[in-house]
Structures are given as structure tokens and as C-alpha cells.
Amino acid sequence: MTTVTESRRAWDSRDFRRLWTGSAVSTFGSEVAELAVPLLAIGVLAATPGELGALRTAQFLPFLLATLPLGLLVDRRRRLPLMIGADVGRFGLILVIPLAVWAGVAGIELLYVVMFLAGVLTVLYQVADFAFVPEVVTPHQLVDANGKLAAAQSANEIGARGFGGLLVQAASAPVAMLVNAVAYLVSALSLRGIAVVETARPAASARPSWAEVTAGLREALRNRFIRALLGEATTFNLFNEVFILGLMLFTVREAGLSPVQLGIVFTAGGVGSFLGAWFGARVTGRFGYGRVLLITLLLGNTAPVLVALAGTDAVETMSLFCAVFVVMGVGIGIANVHAVTLRQAALPERLRGRVNAAYRLISWGAIPVGASLGGLLAGLTDGRTAMVTGACGMVLATLWVAFSPVRRLASIDEATRLSRAS
Predict the structure, then answer these.
(1) 156, 31 in Cβ contact below 8 A?
(2) What's a single GO CC term here (predicted)?
């Protein structure tokens, strides 16, 4: 019994600890930038709602354009060097932003280009990371590993976003971007210490066919469990982007929240996500995978509707948004851990990178669409209208799981057996 218990602890693996450290540090920098980039655009470059929407579009457009070919690349090459290269590349690109601001040559167009290129490398890193985790830990450690990675991300949402708001207010947005760049470099150094011998890949010289490139897309749409999760994620991301863009404009320009107060709001969401990621496995083990997933999605995807009650008083708005983000974070934190684990466990290793790439192509590809729609809606109306519209749209995302076989699953193992038998 002791051996089985130990075998489920991902933390026992030295390589996983290095992977976790790299992921935690890079996520910290990214979360700082989540506030720093839009605040830099709004405050330093005086971006209009349309320009802010275009910036978010440029940042996430790579998920539409680059995901499938990068997914094939991940399945044909060693994942760890790709992750290290992506980190080093992002360090160099993000460093350009503060240097350009301090040199007086920064413009919104430069921000478009840098964030687009950094987005391409982010796609590469995330697709490779998803496929690499199962090679670092055993199958029995996978849920624990994903839980710890998600908990680190949630903890960063707690600390990094609040720190980012404080840093922008106390120093400046360019300084916050410098922190983001250095975090990617530290992540690359941590990943270099991993000694995993990766599974052999097909010969890199073999010319890929269109069928190979699209194999992950076909598998993602064929698998009834992954298809439902994909529909939920796509709908959520589309409307969440409208919601967040409207929220940024409403809180800064209409409610008058300071960068620190805005950071506190996002920190509240991180608290909820951390709690969900940390305790999610226990709850699911007791009540069943499908049932808990449906309830937590309903909770997380419905809570944002309460922002419709917001007024223009900064303190009251901050308090309301903090409560909404905590509830939203708990629901999404639990759901994300188990959705990721299901996608990893139910797929053959040879397709894992491409299926994840296809999943991100569709679900994350909805983000630039949502950013464009949000910018257009906010420009035609105002931030509040865009925010409330996005919140109402997010409720629809739960329907994908509510009317799918996912809600009847008792465990991840059951989904794995049914997926491989079909």
C-alpha cells in the first residue's frame, strides 16, 4: 500500500520538480503581463477600444494560424528543446517592449508585432508542455501532476496579478514587462536541468502529409468526450474575451479603479482557482467526475452575470467583482484540472501533441474572434455593455457538457476505456 501511495506523488520526481519550477516562474511573468500589457496600451499609448481589441487579437491569433503545424512539429521532435527555445525566444521578444518605451520609440504597431510573435512561441510551448508532462511522470501520477501545475498557475493568479497591479502603479508598465521577460529566461534555465529520455519520434526528414497535420483535428472531433469539452471551452473563451475586454475598459475608464484595485480583483479569481485546483481531485473522487464537472462549470460560467449589478463607485465595484471572481475561479479551477487530465489520458501518445494542438486551434482560436467582437462592441457602445454581454454568453458554454456523455462519467479511467474502445 505504501508503494502505491508513493507512486502517485508527482513531487517525488526530480524532473517534475524542475518542470513545475519552470512552469511556475514563466506563468508568474505571464500573469504580471496580463495586467501590464492592456494597462500599457491604455495608459502609455492611449489605445482606443478598437486598438485594445486588435492588440488582444494579435496576441491570440497564432492559436488560429500556427497551432496545427506546431502540433505536428511537437509530435515529430523532442518536446523539451522546443519548450526551452520558446522560453528563450519569448524572453528576447518581450524585452523589446520596455526598451522601446524607454527609448521613446514604442507604438501600438510595435506592440501588435511583438505580442503576435510571442504568441506563436506561446503556442509552441503550451502544445509541447501538454505532450511532455506524461513523459515526466507515471500514469498514476498524472492527475497529481496536473493538479500541482494548475495549483501553481492559480497561485500565480493570486500573487502575480496583484503584484503586477502594484508594480504598474509603483513603478510603471514597462518595468512589469521587464519582469515578464526575465521570468521566461529563468524558466528556460530550470527546464535545462530535466534529464528525461523522451520517446523516439518519427524521422524528422520525412515529409509531413496533410493527413498527418489534420489527424489531431479529426480525433478531437471524433472523440465524444473531448468534443464536448472542446465546445464548452470554445464558447467560454469567445465570450470571456468580450467580458474581460469590457471589464478592463469599464473598471479603468468608468468605475475609476486603480491598477492596484484591478490587480486585487484578478487576485480574487486566482484564490478561487487555487482552491479549486488544490481540492478538486478530492471532490471528484467522492462525487464522480461527470457530476462534479457539470456543477463546477455551471458555477464558474454563471457567476460573471452578477457584474450587471456593478455601479461606478470604485470600492463597491471592486468588492462585487472580487466575489464574482472567487466563485468563478473555484468552478473553473476544478473543471480545468480534470478536463486536461481526461484529454491526456484518453489519447494515444503518438497523437497527443496534434490533438492538443487541434483543441487549442479551435478553443483558443475563439479568443482573437472574441477580442475583435469585444473591441467593436465596446467602441459602438461602452465597456459595461461589452462586459455584461460577454458574461451572459459564458453561461451558454455549460450546455455542451450538460447534454453530453461527459456528465455521466464516474471517473477518468472510465472515459479512457470507453474512448479506446470506440
Answers:
(1) yes
(2) plasma membrane
Helix H or strand E segment including 245: helix 224-249
For the residues of 77-110, what is the DSSP string, one character each?
Answer: S-HHHHHHHHHHHHHHHHHHHHHHHHHT---HHH
Domains with residue ranges and CATH for the chain: 11-195+214-421 (1.20.1250.20)
- How is residue 81 written as a grid cell? 528543446
- Between the CA of residue 257 and those of 46, 164, 317, 343, what are the distances in Å? 17, 14, 8, 39
pTM score, whole prediction:
0.73
Q: Among the residues of 250-365, which ranges form H helices? A: 259-287, 289-302, 314-345, 352-363
Note the pLDDT tens digit of each residue in 166-185. 888 888 889 999 999 999 99
CB 218 within 8 A of CB 227: no
CA distance 237 to 229: 12
Q: Which three cell numbers stand for residue 289?
A: 467526475
For Cα atoms 105, 110, 115, give the angle at the middle one, nearest 5 degrees. 140
The three three-digit cell numbers of residue 214, written as one number: 489534420
The residues, ordered by sequence, that sit 6+ positions from 383 with a Cβ below 8 Å of its Cβ are 49, 246, 247, 248, 249, 250, 251, 253, 254
The answer to whether the beta carbons of residues 387 and 166 sit under 8 Å apart is: no
Question: What SS3 string covers 155-177?
Answer: HHHHHHHHHHHHHHHHCCHHHHH
Contacts (Cβ under 8 Å, ≥6 apart) of 195: 14, 15
Range in 37-51, 288-302, 351-365 with the lowest mean pLDDT = 351-365
Backbone angles phi, psi at 208, to 5 degrees: -70, 145
**What does the block give as the cell for 300?**
464558474
